[in-house]
Amino acid sequence: MAKSSKCGSDDRAAMAAFSPFELKDELIKAAGGGAVERPANLAMLNAGRGNPNFLATVPRHGFWQLGLFAMRESERSFAYMPEGGGGFPKREGLEERFEIFARENKGVPGIAFLTGAVSYVRDQLGLNAGEFLYEMCEGILASNYPVPDRMLKLLEIIVGQYLRREMIGKHPFVGEFDIFAVEGGTAAMTYIFNTMRENFLIKPGDTIALGWPIFTPYIEIPRLNDYKLEVVNLDADVEHAWQCSSKELDKLRDPKVKACFLVNPSNPPSVKMDDESLQYIADIVKERPDLIFLTDDVYGTFADDFVSLFALCSRNTILVYSYSNYFGATGWRLGTIATHPDNILDELIAALPEDEKAILHERYKKSITTEPDRLKFIDRLVADSRTVALNHTAGLSTPQQVQMVLFSLFSLIDTPDAYKHALKRLIPSRKAALYREMGIALEEEGESQVDLHDPRSRASRWPHAWPGVRQLDHEEHEAFRTALRTGEGGARRAVAGARVACQSISTKATTCRSAARSAS
Q1: What CATH number is given to the structural domain containing 180?
Q2: Which residue of 116, 158, 161, 234 has the lowest C-beta tally within 10 Å?
Protein backbone atom coordinates (compact mmCIF):
# COMPACT_ATOMS: atom_id res chain seq x y z
CA MET A 1 0.00 0.00 0.00
CA ALA A 2 2.83 2.36 0.86
CA LYS A 3 4.46 1.73 -2.50
CA SER A 4 1.20 2.33 -4.31
CA SER A 5 0.67 5.58 -2.44
CA LYS A 6 4.16 6.78 -3.32
CA CYS A 7 3.63 6.02 -7.00
CA GLY A 8 0.37 7.90 -6.97
CA SER A 9 2.09 10.90 -5.40
CA ASP A 10 4.86 10.83 -8.01
CA ASP A 11 2.30 10.60 -10.80
CA ARG A 12 0.41 13.58 -9.48
CA ALA A 13 3.65 15.55 -9.21
CA ALA A 14 4.38 14.77 -12.85
CA MET A 15 0.93 15.88 -13.94
CA ALA A 16 1.20 19.06 -11.89
CA ALA A 17 4.19 20.05 -14.04
CA PHE A 18 2.20 19.76 -17.27
CA SER A 19 1.13 22.86 -19.14
CA PRO A 20 -2.63 22.98 -19.82
CA PHE A 21 -2.22 21.86 -23.39
CA GLU A 22 0.29 19.11 -22.53
CA LEU A 23 -2.21 17.68 -20.07
CA LYS A 24 -4.84 17.78 -22.80
CA ASP A 25 -2.51 15.88 -25.13
CA GLU A 26 -1.90 13.20 -22.51
CA LEU A 27 -5.62 12.76 -21.95
CA ILE A 28 -6.08 12.28 -25.68
CA LYS A 29 -3.31 9.69 -25.78
CA ALA A 30 -4.76 7.90 -22.78
CA ALA A 31 -8.28 7.77 -24.16
CA GLY A 32 -7.52 7.24 -27.79
CA GLY A 33 -4.69 4.83 -28.40
CA GLY A 34 -1.48 3.18 -27.31
CA ALA A 35 -1.76 0.50 -24.65
CA VAL A 36 -5.21 1.65 -23.55
CA GLU A 37 -7.98 -0.77 -24.37
CA ARG A 38 -11.46 0.54 -25.07
CA PRO A 39 -14.65 -1.23 -26.09
CA ALA A 40 -14.85 -1.28 -29.87
CA ASN A 41 -18.12 0.63 -29.88
CA LEU A 42 -16.75 3.61 -27.95
CA ALA A 43 -15.20 6.53 -29.79
CA MET A 44 -12.83 9.02 -28.21
CA LEU A 45 -14.23 12.54 -28.37
CA ASN A 46 -11.86 15.49 -27.92
CA ALA A 47 -13.94 17.87 -25.82
CA GLY A 48 -10.99 20.12 -25.05
CA ARG A 49 -10.51 21.89 -28.36
CA GLY A 50 -12.55 24.95 -29.22
CA ASN A 51 -13.41 23.85 -32.74
CA PRO A 52 -17.07 23.71 -33.78
CA ASN A 53 -18.30 20.87 -35.96
CA PHE A 54 -20.71 23.17 -37.78
CA LEU A 55 -19.89 25.86 -40.32
CA ALA A 56 -21.56 28.62 -42.30
CA THR A 57 -22.10 27.26 -45.81
CA VAL A 58 -23.72 30.20 -47.63
CA PRO A 59 -20.76 32.61 -47.48
CA ARG A 60 -18.44 29.77 -48.48
CA HIS A 61 -20.55 29.06 -51.56
CA GLY A 62 -20.31 32.76 -52.26
CA PHE A 63 -16.53 32.63 -51.99
CA TRP A 64 -16.20 29.89 -54.61
CA GLN A 65 -18.62 31.54 -57.03
CA LEU A 66 -16.86 34.88 -56.66
CA GLY A 67 -13.61 33.08 -57.42
CA LEU A 68 -15.06 31.70 -60.66
CA PHE A 69 -16.24 35.15 -61.68
CA ALA A 70 -12.85 36.67 -60.83
CA MET A 71 -11.09 34.02 -62.92
CA ARG A 72 -13.33 34.81 -65.85
CA GLU A 73 -12.44 38.47 -65.45
CA SER A 74 -8.73 37.66 -65.32
CA GLU A 75 -8.92 35.59 -68.48
CA ARG A 76 -10.39 38.49 -70.43
CA SER A 77 -6.83 39.80 -70.53
CA PHE A 78 -4.03 37.95 -72.33
CA ALA A 79 -6.62 35.72 -73.97
CA TYR A 80 -4.16 35.23 -76.82
CA MET A 81 -1.86 33.28 -74.48
CA PRO A 82 -2.78 29.57 -74.57
CA GLU A 83 -0.25 28.84 -71.84
CA GLY A 84 -2.68 29.94 -69.12
CA GLY A 85 -1.72 33.54 -68.43
CA GLY A 86 -4.28 36.04 -67.17
CA GLY A 87 -4.41 39.67 -66.17
CA PHE A 88 -5.95 41.89 -63.54
CA PRO A 89 -9.71 42.55 -63.57
CA LYS A 90 -10.87 45.66 -65.44
CA ARG A 91 -12.89 48.23 -63.52
CA GLU A 92 -14.89 49.47 -66.50
CA GLY A 93 -18.13 47.54 -66.89
CA LEU A 94 -17.33 45.17 -64.02
CA GLU A 95 -20.69 45.52 -62.28
CA GLU A 96 -22.58 44.85 -65.52
CA ARG A 97 -20.49 41.77 -66.26
CA PHE A 98 -21.17 40.48 -62.76
CA GLU A 99 -24.91 40.85 -63.33
CA ILE A 100 -24.58 38.81 -66.53
CA PHE A 101 -22.59 36.16 -64.65
CA ALA A 102 -25.26 36.02 -61.94
CA ARG A 103 -28.08 35.60 -64.49
CA GLU A 104 -26.19 32.85 -66.28
CA ASN A 105 -25.70 30.98 -63.01
CA LYS A 106 -29.07 31.64 -61.41
CA GLY A 107 -29.91 28.88 -58.94
CA VAL A 108 -26.29 27.90 -58.33
CA PRO A 109 -25.51 27.89 -54.58
CA GLY A 110 -23.85 31.15 -53.59
CA ILE A 111 -25.10 33.28 -56.48
CA ALA A 112 -28.18 34.65 -54.74
CA PHE A 113 -26.04 35.50 -51.73
CA LEU A 114 -23.49 37.34 -53.87
CA THR A 115 -26.12 39.38 -55.69
CA GLY A 116 -27.69 40.25 -52.34
CA ALA A 117 -24.29 41.21 -50.95
CA VAL A 118 -23.56 43.55 -53.87
CA SER A 119 -27.01 45.10 -53.51
CA TYR A 120 -26.51 45.59 -49.76
CA VAL A 121 -23.12 47.22 -50.25
CA ARG A 122 -24.56 49.60 -52.84
CA ASP A 123 -28.00 50.36 -51.37
CA GLN A 124 -27.48 50.08 -47.60
CA LEU A 125 -23.84 51.05 -47.12
CA GLY A 126 -23.70 53.59 -49.94
CA LEU A 127 -20.50 52.17 -51.42
CA ASN A 128 -19.66 51.97 -55.11
CA ALA A 129 -20.63 48.46 -56.20
CA GLY A 130 -18.12 48.42 -59.06
CA GLU A 131 -15.25 49.40 -56.76
CA PHE A 132 -16.38 46.82 -54.23
CA LEU A 133 -16.42 44.07 -56.87
CA TYR A 134 -13.00 45.13 -58.12
CA GLU A 135 -11.51 45.01 -54.62
CA MET A 136 -13.11 41.60 -54.02
CA CYS A 137 -12.02 40.16 -57.37
CA GLU A 138 -8.45 41.36 -57.05
CA GLY A 139 -8.46 40.14 -53.46
CA ILE A 140 -9.70 36.64 -54.20
CA LEU A 141 -7.21 36.32 -57.06
CA ALA A 142 -4.44 37.27 -54.60
CA SER A 143 -2.79 39.17 -57.42
CA ASN A 144 -1.48 42.04 -55.33
CA TYR A 145 -0.11 42.81 -51.90
CA PRO A 146 -2.65 43.94 -49.29
CA VAL A 147 -2.99 47.70 -49.87
CA PRO A 148 -3.57 49.37 -47.47
CA ASP A 149 -1.56 46.92 -45.41
CA ARG A 150 -3.85 47.16 -42.39
CA MET A 151 -6.90 46.11 -44.41
CA LEU A 152 -8.32 46.69 -47.87
CA LYS A 153 -10.17 50.00 -47.95
CA LEU A 154 -13.80 49.08 -48.66
CA LEU A 155 -13.51 45.77 -46.87
CA GLU A 156 -12.54 47.61 -43.67
CA ILE A 157 -15.74 49.64 -43.86
CA ILE A 158 -17.87 46.51 -44.22
CA VAL A 159 -16.16 44.66 -41.38
CA GLY A 160 -16.61 47.80 -39.28
CA GLN A 161 -20.35 47.61 -39.91
CA TYR A 162 -20.35 43.97 -38.83
CA LEU A 163 -18.47 44.77 -35.61
CA ARG A 164 -20.85 47.63 -34.91
CA ARG A 165 -23.84 45.32 -35.23
CA GLU A 166 -22.45 42.38 -33.24
CA MET A 167 -20.27 44.12 -30.65
CA ILE A 168 -22.11 47.41 -30.11
CA GLY A 169 -25.71 46.46 -30.85
CA LYS A 170 -28.20 49.14 -29.83
CA HIS A 171 -25.85 50.83 -27.40
CA PRO A 172 -25.14 54.49 -28.22
CA PHE A 173 -21.79 54.74 -29.94
CA VAL A 174 -20.05 57.63 -31.66
CA GLY A 175 -17.24 57.12 -34.15
CA GLU A 176 -15.85 54.43 -36.38
CA PHE A 177 -13.36 51.59 -36.14
CA ASP A 178 -9.73 51.49 -37.16
CA ILE A 179 -9.30 47.81 -38.04
CA PHE A 180 -6.28 45.58 -38.54
CA ALA A 181 -7.20 42.26 -40.17
CA VAL A 182 -5.10 39.50 -38.61
CA GLU A 183 -4.61 35.73 -38.61
CA GLY A 184 -7.22 34.96 -35.96
CA GLY A 185 -7.35 35.80 -32.27
CA THR A 186 -4.00 34.07 -31.79
CA ALA A 187 -2.20 36.62 -33.94
CA ALA A 188 -4.15 39.44 -32.32
CA MET A 189 -2.90 38.47 -28.86
CA THR A 190 0.68 38.10 -30.10
CA TYR A 191 0.74 41.42 -31.92
CA ILE A 192 -0.89 43.42 -29.12
CA PHE A 193 1.38 42.18 -26.35
CA ASN A 194 4.44 42.78 -28.55
CA THR A 195 3.53 46.30 -29.67
CA MET A 196 2.52 47.38 -26.17
CA ARG A 197 5.95 46.28 -24.97
CA GLU A 198 7.86 47.84 -27.88
CA ASN A 199 6.07 51.16 -27.32
CA PHE A 200 6.67 51.21 -23.54
CA LEU A 201 2.97 50.87 -22.68
CA ILE A 202 3.90 47.85 -20.58
CA LYS A 203 7.34 47.22 -19.13
CA PRO A 204 8.91 44.40 -17.09
CA GLY A 205 7.66 44.64 -13.53
CA ASP A 206 4.47 46.48 -14.49
CA THR A 207 1.15 45.19 -13.18
CA ILE A 208 -1.77 44.13 -15.34
CA ALA A 209 -5.17 42.76 -14.37
CA LEU A 210 -6.77 39.62 -15.79
CA GLY A 211 -10.47 38.80 -15.65
CA TRP A 212 -10.51 35.36 -14.05
CA PRO A 213 -10.99 32.55 -15.06
CA ILE A 214 -9.56 33.27 -18.48
CA PHE A 215 -8.22 31.59 -21.61
CA THR A 216 -4.95 30.05 -20.43
CA PRO A 217 -2.52 31.84 -22.83
CA TYR A 218 -3.50 35.14 -21.20
CA ILE A 219 -2.17 33.63 -17.96
CA GLU A 220 1.05 32.34 -19.50
CA ILE A 221 2.11 35.21 -21.78
CA PRO A 222 2.69 37.83 -19.03
CA ARG A 223 5.05 35.41 -17.27
CA LEU A 224 7.34 35.00 -20.27
CA ASN A 225 10.79 36.56 -20.21
CA ASP A 226 9.59 38.80 -23.03
CA TYR A 227 7.26 40.61 -20.62
CA LYS A 228 7.84 39.67 -16.94
CA LEU A 229 4.61 41.31 -15.83
CA GLU A 230 2.96 41.16 -12.43
CA VAL A 231 -0.66 40.01 -12.51
CA VAL A 232 -3.69 40.90 -10.42
CA ASN A 233 -6.70 38.63 -10.86
CA LEU A 234 -10.25 39.93 -11.04
CA ASP A 235 -12.00 36.83 -9.74
CA ALA A 236 -15.48 36.12 -11.08
CA ASP A 237 -17.77 34.39 -8.60
CA VAL A 238 -19.44 31.16 -9.71
CA GLU A 239 -22.12 31.71 -7.05
CA HIS A 240 -23.02 35.03 -8.67
CA ALA A 241 -23.37 33.90 -12.28
CA TRP A 242 -19.64 34.28 -12.98
CA GLN A 243 -19.71 38.05 -12.47
CA CYS A 244 -16.99 40.06 -10.76
CA SER A 245 -18.05 41.82 -7.58
CA SER A 246 -17.51 45.54 -7.18
CA LYS A 247 -14.75 44.67 -4.71
CA GLU A 248 -12.89 42.74 -7.41
CA LEU A 249 -13.41 45.44 -10.04
CA ASP A 250 -12.20 48.07 -7.58
CA LYS A 251 -8.73 46.56 -8.01
CA LEU A 252 -8.66 48.53 -11.27
CA ARG A 253 -8.62 51.79 -9.31
CA ASP A 254 -5.05 51.08 -8.23
CA PRO A 255 -2.83 53.33 -10.40
CA LYS A 256 -0.15 50.64 -10.58
CA VAL A 257 -2.48 48.56 -12.81
CA LYS A 258 -1.49 49.63 -16.32
CA ALA A 259 -3.85 47.44 -18.35
CA CYS A 260 -6.67 44.94 -17.98
CA PHE A 261 -7.22 41.91 -20.23
CA LEU A 262 -10.71 40.43 -20.43
CA VAL A 263 -12.40 37.62 -22.35
CA ASN A 264 -16.10 38.41 -22.76
CA PRO A 265 -18.10 36.19 -22.76
CA SER A 266 -15.72 34.42 -20.45
CA ASN A 267 -13.69 31.36 -21.37
CA PRO A 268 -14.19 28.74 -20.00
CA PRO A 269 -17.36 29.73 -18.05
CA SER A 270 -19.00 31.11 -21.23
CA VAL A 271 -20.91 33.88 -19.46
CA LYS A 272 -21.10 37.45 -20.73
CA MET A 273 -20.35 40.41 -18.49
CA ASP A 274 -23.62 41.90 -17.27
CA ASP A 275 -24.68 45.51 -17.83
CA GLU A 276 -23.98 46.50 -14.23
CA SER A 277 -20.38 45.29 -14.43
CA LEU A 278 -19.80 47.05 -17.74
CA GLN A 279 -21.12 50.31 -16.34
CA TYR A 280 -19.08 49.89 -13.16
CA ILE A 281 -15.92 49.57 -15.24
CA ALA A 282 -16.92 52.59 -17.32
CA ASP A 283 -17.27 54.61 -14.12
CA ILE A 284 -13.81 53.49 -13.00
CA VAL A 285 -12.39 54.64 -16.33
CA LYS A 286 -13.66 58.14 -15.58
CA GLU A 287 -11.33 58.09 -12.57
CA ARG A 288 -8.57 56.19 -14.43
CA PRO A 289 -8.55 57.68 -17.96
CA ASP A 290 -5.07 56.21 -18.50
CA LEU A 291 -6.22 52.60 -18.01
CA ILE A 292 -5.91 50.35 -21.08
CA PHE A 293 -8.33 47.48 -21.72
CA LEU A 294 -8.12 44.58 -24.12
CA THR A 295 -11.44 42.80 -24.56
CA ASP A 296 -11.41 39.49 -26.44
CA ASP A 297 -15.02 39.07 -27.57
CA VAL A 298 -14.82 36.01 -29.81
CA TYR A 299 -17.89 34.41 -28.21
CA GLY A 300 -19.97 37.60 -28.18
CA THR A 301 -21.90 36.57 -31.28
CA PHE A 302 -23.37 33.60 -29.38
CA ALA A 303 -24.74 35.73 -26.52
CA ASP A 304 -28.15 37.38 -26.39
CA ASP A 305 -28.07 41.19 -26.64
CA PHE A 306 -24.30 41.26 -26.33
CA VAL A 307 -22.58 44.58 -25.68
CA SER A 308 -18.80 44.83 -25.70
CA LEU A 309 -16.84 46.92 -23.23
CA PHE A 310 -15.65 48.73 -26.35
CA ALA A 311 -19.13 50.27 -26.66
CA LEU A 312 -18.80 51.99 -23.27
CA CYS A 313 -15.05 52.64 -23.12
CA SER A 314 -14.01 52.93 -26.75
CA ARG A 315 -11.15 55.39 -26.11
CA ASN A 316 -9.52 53.01 -23.65
CA THR A 317 -10.28 49.65 -25.26
CA ILE A 318 -8.65 47.41 -27.84
CA LEU A 319 -11.30 45.12 -29.31
CA VAL A 320 -10.28 41.65 -30.47
CA TYR A 321 -12.74 39.56 -32.47
CA SER A 322 -12.29 36.26 -34.29
CA TYR A 323 -14.55 34.70 -36.92
CA SER A 324 -13.38 31.21 -36.02
CA ASN A 325 -16.14 29.85 -33.81
CA TYR A 326 -19.30 31.57 -35.00
CA PHE A 327 -18.71 30.75 -38.65
CA GLY A 328 -16.88 27.46 -38.09
CA ALA A 329 -13.74 28.93 -39.64
CA THR A 330 -10.81 28.01 -37.40
CA GLY A 331 -8.81 26.89 -40.42
CA TRP A 332 -9.26 30.22 -42.19
CA ARG A 333 -7.44 32.15 -39.41
CA LEU A 334 -9.61 35.27 -39.50
CA GLY A 335 -9.56 37.90 -36.80
CA THR A 336 -9.61 41.63 -36.22
CA ILE A 337 -8.02 44.16 -33.91
CA ALA A 338 -10.08 47.33 -33.65
CA THR A 339 -9.44 50.66 -31.96
CA HIS A 340 -11.31 53.95 -31.89
CA PRO A 341 -9.65 56.68 -33.99
CA ASP A 342 -9.48 58.80 -30.83
CA ASN A 343 -7.84 56.56 -28.25
CA ILE A 344 -5.76 56.70 -25.08
CA LEU A 345 -3.03 54.48 -26.56
CA ASP A 346 -1.93 57.18 -28.98
CA GLU A 347 -2.04 59.77 -26.20
CA LEU A 348 0.07 57.65 -23.86
CA ILE A 349 2.69 57.13 -26.57
CA ALA A 350 2.76 60.86 -27.30
CA ALA A 351 3.30 61.55 -23.58
CA LEU A 352 6.25 59.16 -23.17
CA PRO A 353 9.55 60.53 -21.84
CA GLU A 354 11.76 62.07 -24.49
CA ASP A 355 14.35 59.29 -24.38
CA GLU A 356 11.70 56.64 -25.06
CA LYS A 357 10.13 58.71 -27.83
CA ALA A 358 13.57 59.01 -29.42
CA ILE A 359 13.90 55.22 -29.44
CA LEU A 360 10.52 54.85 -31.13
CA HIS A 361 11.35 57.61 -33.62
CA GLU A 362 14.38 55.61 -34.74
CA ARG A 363 12.39 52.37 -34.79
CA TYR A 364 9.71 53.52 -37.21
CA LYS A 365 11.28 56.32 -39.26
CA LYS A 366 13.17 54.34 -41.90
CA SER A 367 10.55 51.88 -43.11
CA ILE A 368 7.20 53.40 -42.21
CA THR A 369 6.81 57.17 -42.38
CA THR A 370 8.67 60.44 -42.38
CA GLU A 371 6.61 61.43 -39.32
CA PRO A 372 6.97 58.42 -37.01
CA ASP A 373 5.92 60.38 -33.93
CA ARG A 374 2.42 60.69 -35.39
CA LEU A 375 2.06 57.00 -36.21
CA LYS A 376 -1.11 55.50 -34.70
CA PHE A 377 -0.89 52.60 -32.29
CA ILE A 378 -2.82 50.37 -34.69
CA ASP A 379 -0.40 51.16 -37.51
CA ARG A 380 2.49 50.37 -35.19
CA LEU A 381 0.82 46.99 -34.69
CA VAL A 382 0.97 46.41 -38.45
CA ALA A 383 4.62 47.40 -38.67
CA ASP A 384 5.65 45.37 -35.64
CA SER A 385 3.82 42.33 -36.99
CA ARG A 386 6.44 42.23 -39.74
CA THR A 387 9.42 43.32 -37.62
CA VAL A 388 9.07 46.88 -38.99
CA ALA A 389 11.57 46.37 -41.81
CA LEU A 390 9.13 44.11 -43.70
CA ASN A 391 6.19 46.45 -43.27
CA HIS A 392 5.96 46.97 -47.04
CA THR A 393 4.65 43.41 -47.38
CA ALA A 394 2.54 43.38 -44.20
CA GLY A 395 -1.13 42.50 -44.03
CA LEU A 396 -3.49 39.55 -43.99
CA SER A 397 -3.62 37.66 -47.28
CA THR A 398 -6.29 39.13 -49.52
CA PRO A 399 -8.29 35.89 -50.04
CA GLN A 400 -8.60 35.68 -46.26
CA GLN A 401 -9.88 39.24 -46.19
CA VAL A 402 -12.43 38.40 -48.89
CA GLN A 403 -13.80 35.45 -46.91
CA MET A 404 -13.91 37.63 -43.79
CA VAL A 405 -16.03 40.19 -45.63
CA LEU A 406 -18.35 37.53 -47.04
CA PHE A 407 -18.89 36.22 -43.50
CA SER A 408 -19.61 39.79 -42.37
CA LEU A 409 -22.07 40.45 -45.20
CA PHE A 410 -23.78 37.12 -44.56
CA SER A 411 -24.52 38.32 -41.03
CA LEU A 412 -25.44 41.87 -42.04
CA ILE A 413 -27.91 40.70 -44.68
CA ASP A 414 -29.46 38.19 -42.28
CA THR A 415 -31.62 40.79 -40.53
CA PRO A 416 -33.87 38.17 -38.84
CA ASP A 417 -30.71 36.50 -37.46
CA ALA A 418 -31.83 33.13 -38.82
CA TYR A 419 -28.31 31.66 -38.71
CA LYS A 420 -27.72 32.90 -35.17
CA HIS A 421 -31.04 31.52 -33.92
CA ALA A 422 -30.30 28.16 -35.54
CA LEU A 423 -27.01 27.93 -33.63
CA LYS A 424 -28.72 28.94 -30.42
CA ARG A 425 -31.15 26.06 -30.86
CA LEU A 426 -28.42 23.60 -31.76
CA ILE A 427 -25.86 24.27 -29.03
CA PRO A 428 -28.15 24.15 -25.95
CA SER A 429 -29.66 20.87 -27.14
CA ARG A 430 -26.19 19.34 -27.36
CA LYS A 431 -25.27 20.73 -23.98
CA ALA A 432 -28.40 19.22 -22.44
CA ALA A 433 -27.60 15.83 -24.00
CA LEU A 434 -24.03 15.90 -22.69
CA TYR A 435 -25.07 16.82 -19.17
CA ARG A 436 -27.83 14.22 -19.19
CA GLU A 437 -25.43 11.42 -20.10
CA MET A 438 -22.99 12.58 -17.42
CA GLY A 439 -25.74 12.42 -14.82
CA ILE A 440 -25.60 16.12 -13.98
CA ALA A 441 -28.72 18.21 -13.47
CA LEU A 442 -28.55 21.13 -15.89
CA GLU A 443 -29.07 24.37 -14.03
CA GLU A 444 -31.98 26.64 -14.86
CA GLU A 445 -31.54 29.10 -17.71
CA GLY A 446 -30.09 32.35 -16.51
CA GLU A 447 -27.88 30.76 -13.86
CA SER A 448 -24.18 30.13 -14.32
CA GLN A 449 -23.38 26.89 -16.06
CA VAL A 450 -21.10 24.23 -14.64
CA ASP A 451 -17.57 24.68 -15.95
CA LEU A 452 -14.69 22.25 -15.90
CA HIS A 453 -11.73 24.62 -15.75
CA ASP A 454 -10.92 23.12 -12.32
CA PRO A 455 -12.29 19.56 -12.45
CA ARG A 456 -11.33 18.76 -8.87
CA SER A 457 -13.88 21.25 -7.53
CA ARG A 458 -16.64 19.54 -9.52
CA ALA A 459 -15.58 15.91 -9.43
CA SER A 460 -17.43 15.12 -6.21
CA ARG A 461 -20.69 15.95 -7.98
CA TRP A 462 -20.23 13.28 -10.64
CA PRO A 463 -17.76 10.59 -9.51
CA HIS A 464 -19.45 8.02 -11.74
CA ALA A 465 -18.39 10.02 -14.79
CA TRP A 466 -14.90 11.13 -13.79
CA PRO A 467 -13.16 8.60 -11.52
CA GLY A 468 -9.72 9.78 -10.51
CA VAL A 469 -10.22 13.43 -11.39
CA ARG A 470 -10.14 14.49 -7.73
CA GLN A 471 -6.55 13.30 -7.51
CA LEU A 472 -5.29 15.79 -10.10
CA ASP A 473 -3.15 18.63 -8.83
CA HIS A 474 -2.96 21.15 -11.63
CA GLU A 475 -4.16 24.62 -10.77
CA GLU A 476 -4.64 26.36 -14.09
CA HIS A 477 -5.87 24.24 -16.91
CA GLU A 478 -8.86 23.78 -19.18
CA ALA A 479 -8.20 20.24 -20.29
CA PHE A 480 -11.59 19.09 -19.03
CA ARG A 481 -13.71 21.80 -20.63
CA THR A 482 -17.05 20.38 -21.60
CA ALA A 483 -17.72 20.59 -25.32
CA LEU A 484 -21.10 22.04 -26.14
CA ARG A 485 -20.85 20.47 -29.55
CA THR A 486 -21.81 16.84 -29.01
CA GLY A 487 -24.99 15.17 -30.07
CA GLU A 488 -26.78 12.78 -27.72
CA GLY A 489 -24.79 9.77 -28.90
CA GLY A 490 -21.64 11.82 -28.86
CA ALA A 491 -22.30 12.79 -25.26
CA ARG A 492 -22.46 9.15 -24.22
CA ARG A 493 -19.19 8.47 -26.01
CA ALA A 494 -17.61 11.57 -24.46
CA VAL A 495 -18.34 10.35 -20.95
CA ALA A 496 -17.00 6.89 -21.73
CA GLY A 497 -13.87 8.35 -23.31
CA ALA A 498 -13.34 10.59 -20.31
CA ARG A 499 -13.62 7.62 -17.97
CA VAL A 500 -10.96 5.76 -19.92
CA ALA A 501 -8.72 8.83 -19.98
CA CYS A 502 -8.95 9.55 -16.29
CA GLN A 503 -8.49 5.93 -15.26
CA SER A 504 -5.33 5.54 -17.29
CA ILE A 505 -3.71 8.96 -17.16
CA SER A 506 -1.86 8.29 -13.90
CA THR A 507 -0.14 5.24 -15.39
CA LYS A 508 0.98 7.23 -18.41
CA ALA A 509 2.10 10.37 -16.62
CA THR A 510 5.45 9.08 -15.42
CA THR A 511 6.46 8.12 -18.92
CA CYS A 512 5.91 11.65 -20.16
CA ARG A 513 8.28 13.49 -17.86
CA SER A 514 11.81 12.78 -16.84
CA ALA A 515 12.63 12.31 -13.17
CA ALA A 516 14.20 15.73 -13.12
CA ARG A 517 11.07 17.42 -14.50
CA SER A 518 8.87 15.51 -12.07
CA ALA A 519 11.03 16.53 -9.15
CA SER A 520 10.88 20.17 -10.19
Answers
A1: 3.40.640.10
A2: 116
